[in-house]
Amino acid sequence: MNRLLIFIAVAFGTAVAGAASLTAREGWIRPAPPVAQVRAGYVVIENAGDTEIVLDKVESADFGAIEIHTMYDDAGTMLMRRVPELRIPAKGKVELKPGSLHLMMFRPKRVLVEGEHVEVTLRGADATVTTTLVVKAQTP
Ligand SMILES: [Cu+2]
Fold this sequence. Notes:
The chain is mainly beta. It has a single domain (3-135), classed as PCu(A)C copper chaperone (Immunoglobulin-like), CATH 2.60.40. Helix content is 14%, strand content 51%. The chain has one helix at 3-21; strands at 22-29, 38-47, 53-55, 57-59, 63-74, 77-82, 86-88, 92-95, 102-108, 117-123, 128-135. β10 and β11 form a beta hairpin.
């Protein structure tokens, strides 16, 4: 490998590999009354790469803020708390789904009835993935 190619690999290798290896699919948002100020979103994120990917920011033009939450059982009561990041294992996936990890989406900027599409971007230091979440009832 010549010197230029080595430079390119070092400078851009991580970002390019991370971006290319990350995919998101099956995104959806639970239907809620139009006045609801908090919505729950779910998506499957897959990492085809050889290194773990950490995502710690979630953004959408349609929401004021989005946090990553998880659910836990507190003596029979399901509660939720914020988690700082999603870690997508190498050659693996993380499923955000009801009763587990989810996106907590605050302050919708427009009315989101069933069938609406919302574009969401998940970011980390080494990778970014943008995907579409559809407002729809959970499919069994
Ligand atoms: Cu939550």
